[in-house]
C-alpha cells in the first residue's frame, strides 16, 4: 500500500551481497517454538492491523449511515441519490487521499526511524499512533467528523511501522526468507477486510464505537509481542550462531553484540577486498556510482512512471468506489452494500495472490542464470531480465482492471474487483524486486524511499480528478477513465525498454 515497505536489503544485509541458508546453526530447544510464535503472531498483526486503510469503502458506508458530513448535503432531495451529496463525497475522498499519500510518503522517514532507533522504539511509536487513531475514530461522531482527517493518516503510519518491523522476521527462516516477506506483504493487502468485518458487525447492531475500542484494546497484544516475541534491535541476516531474542535473550549481552560487529567487519573487509580485485568488471564499477547517478537514469524514471500510474489507478478506484457503486446502483443502498462486501472479500485474497509474482521471478531468474553460466553473460543483467514478465503482466492486469472499471455496468464490477486485487498484489512486490535487481543493493533503501515518495505526490491527483467528476462532469467519470486508461498504456513502455536493454 499499498502500500508496502520492503527495506530489508539495506537494514539487514550491510555487506551488500546475497547470503545462503540460515547463516548459522539452528537454535536448539526453545528456539523453534519461539520463532514460529513470532512468525504466526506477526502474520496476525499484519493481517489484522497493518493495511486496514484500503478497506476504506466499507468504512465509508458506515460513516454515511451514521450521517458523517451529512450537513454538507443539499437540504432538498434524498441524501442517498447519486447527485445528492457531492460535498460529502469530496470530504471522504479527501480523507482517503491524505491517508493514502501518507501511506507512501512516510515510507522513507519511518524506515529511518526503524534503522536509527531499532525495533522496540519503532513499535512503541506504531502502537501509540495506532491506538490514538482507533480511539479517536471510536469517539468521533457526525458532529466531530473532521477528526477523521487526523485519525486516518495516524492509522496509516502506525500500520506501516507494524509491517516494517515484521518484515525482518523472515531473517529467522533463512532460505524461506523471501516467501515470508511476500506473505507478510500479502497479509498487509488482505487486512483491508477488517473494515468489512466492522461494517458487517455494524449491520448486526454492534456500534462503530465498540469495534474501534476493541481495536484499541488490542494494543495490549502489540505491547506484549514487542517485549516478548521481538528483538530490541534488528534481526540480522544471516543469523549468527546461537542467536537469541525476546523470551530467550532476557537482555542482549555485550559479547554477542561484539561478535556480530566483528562478523560484519570481517564480511565488509572480504567484500571490499574482492571488489578491489575485480576493479575491471563493469558491475563493480557500476556499484561505485553515486545514488543520484542512478536516480536520474532512464531506467529509474520509467520505473517511477510505471509505479505512479498503476498506483494512482488503485488509489483512485478505492477512494471513489462508494461513489461509483452509488451511481451505478441508482442510489440503492442494498446493492451498494452487497457490492461493497464483494469488493472487501476479494481484497482478503491478496495474501494468496502476492507470492505468485515472487515465484514467477524466482523461477525465471534460475532459468536465466543457467543460460548465463553457459554463455558467460552478466549475472546482474540476467537478474534484470527476470523482471520483464512481471512488469509486463502487472501493467496488463492494471489495464484490464481499468477497462472493466470504465464500463458503467454494475455486474461487470465483480471482474473489476478480481483484476484489481491481483494487480495490486503484483504491483508492490514487483516494485521492490525490480529495485533490488536493477540497482546496487547499497542504494536500495534510498531509491525505494525516493520512488515511493514521488509516487505519493502523483497519488494526490486522485482528489482533483474526483472533484472534476463530481463538478464539471456531473458524476460521469467516463472521460476521466478513458484518459487514465490511455496513460496506463504508457506503463508498457517500461518492460519494453528493460527487454531491449536485456537484448543488447
TrEMBL record:
Principal subcellular localization: membrane
Keywords: Membrane, Transmembrane, Transmembrane helix
Family annotation (Pfam families): MFS_1
GO cellular component, one term: membrane
TM region(s), chain numbering: 36-62, 92-114, 121-139, 145-169, 181-202, 300-318, 338-360, 381-408, 414-435, 447-466, 478-499
Membrane topology type: Multi-pass membrane protein
Example of a GO MF term: transmembrane transporter activity
Location of this chain's protein in the cell: Membrane
InterPro entries named in the record: MFS (IPR011701), MFS_trans_sf (IPR036259), SLC43A3 (IPR027197)
Listed PANTHER family: EQUILIBRATIVE NUCLEOBASE TRANSPORTER 1 (PTHR20765:SF1), SOLUTE CARRIER FAMILY 43 MEMBER 3-RELATED (PTHR20765)
Protein name as it appears in the record: Equilibrative nucleobase transporter 1 isoform X1
Provenance organism: Erinaceus europaeus
Lineage start: Eukaryota, Metazoa, Chordata, Craniata, Vertebrata
Amino acid at each position: 500500500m499499498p502500500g508496502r515497505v520492503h527495506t530489508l536489503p539495506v537494514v539487514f544485509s550491510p555487506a551488500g551481497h546475497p547470503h545462503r541458508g540460515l547463516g548459522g546453526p539452528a537454535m536448539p530447544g526453545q528456539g523453534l517454538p519461539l520463532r514460529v510464535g513470532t512468525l504466526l503472531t506477526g502474520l496476525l498483526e499484519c493481517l489484522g492491523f497493518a493495511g486496514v486503510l484500503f478497506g476504506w469503502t466499507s468504512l465509508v458506508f458506515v460513516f454515511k449511515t451514521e450521517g458523517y458530513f451529512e450537513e454538507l448535503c443539499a437540504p432538498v432531495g434524498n441524501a442517498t441519490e447519486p447527485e445528492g451529496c457531492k460535498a460529502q463525497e469530496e470530504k471522504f475522498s479527501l480523507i482517503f487521499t491524505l491517508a493514502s499519500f501518507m501511506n507512501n510518503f512516510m515510507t522513507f522517514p519511518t524506515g529511518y526511524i526503524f534503522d536509527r532507533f531499532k525495533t522496540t522504539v519503532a513499535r512503541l511509536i506504531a502502537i501509540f499512533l495506532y491506538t490514538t487513531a482507533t480511539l479517536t475514530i471510536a469517539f468521533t461522531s457526525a458532529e466531530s467528523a473532521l477528526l477523521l482527517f487526523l485519525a486516518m493518516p495516524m492509522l496509516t503510519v502506525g500500520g506501516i511501522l507494524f509491517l516494517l518491523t515484521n518484515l525482518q522476521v523472515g531473517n529467522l527462516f533463512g532460505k524461506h526468507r523471501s516467501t515470508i516477506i511476500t506473505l507478510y506483504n500479502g497479509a498487509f493487502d488482505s487486512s483491508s477486510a477488517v473494515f468489512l468485518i466492522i461494517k458487517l458487525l455494524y449491520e448486526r447492531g454492534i456500534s462503530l464505537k465498540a469495534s474501534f475500542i476493541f481495536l484499541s484494546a488490542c494494543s495490549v497484544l502489540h505491547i506484549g509481542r514487542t517485549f516478548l516475541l521481538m528483538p530490541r534491535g534488528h534481526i540480522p541476516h544471516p543469523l549468527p550462531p546461537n542467536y537469541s531474542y525476546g523470551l530467550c535473550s532476557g537482555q542482549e549481552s555485550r559479547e554477542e553484540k561484539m561478535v556480530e560487529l566483528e562478523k560484519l567487519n570481517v564480511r565488509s573487509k572480504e567484500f571490499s577486498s574482492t571488489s578491489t580485485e575485480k576493479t575491471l568488471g563493469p558491475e563493480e564499477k557500476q556499484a561505485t556510482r553515486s545514488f543520484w547517478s542512478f536516480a536520474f537514469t532512464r531506467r529509474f524514471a520509467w520505473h517511477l512512471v510505471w509505479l505512479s500510474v498503476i498506483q494512482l489507478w488503485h488509489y483512485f478506484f478505492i477512494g471513489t468506489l462508494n461513489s461509483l457503486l452509488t451511481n451505478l446502483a441508482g442510489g440503492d443502498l442494498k446493492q451498494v452494500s452487497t457490492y461493497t462486501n464483494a469488493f472487501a472479500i476479494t481484497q482478503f485474497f491478496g495474501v494468496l495472490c502476492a507470492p505468485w509474482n515472487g515465484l514467477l521471478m524466482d523461477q525465471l531468474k534460475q532459468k536465466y542464470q543457467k543460460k548465463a553460466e553457459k554463455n558467460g553473460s552478466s549475472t546482474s543483467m540476467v537478474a534484470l531480465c527476470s523482471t520483464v514478465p512481471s512488469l509486463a503482466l502487472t501493467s496488463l492486469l492494471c489495464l484490464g482492471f481499468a477497462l472493466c472499471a470504465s464500463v458503467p455496468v454494475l455486474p461487470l464490477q465483480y471482474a473489476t474487483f478480481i483484476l484489481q486485487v491481483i494487480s495490486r498484489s503484483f504491483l508492490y512486490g514487483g516494485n521492490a524486486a525490480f529495485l533490488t535487481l536493477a540497482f546496487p543493493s547499497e542504494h536500495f533503501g534510498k531509491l525505494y524511499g525516493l520512488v515511493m515518495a514521488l509516487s505519493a505526490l502523483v497519488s494526490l491527483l486522485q482528489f482533483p480528478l474526483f472533484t472534476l467528476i463530481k463538478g464539471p462532469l456531473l458524476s460521469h467519470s467516463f472521460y476521466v477513465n478513458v484518459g487514465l486508461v490511455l496513460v496506463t498504456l504508457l506503463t508498457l513502455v517500461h518492460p519494453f525498454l528493460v527487454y531491449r536493454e536485456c537484448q543488447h
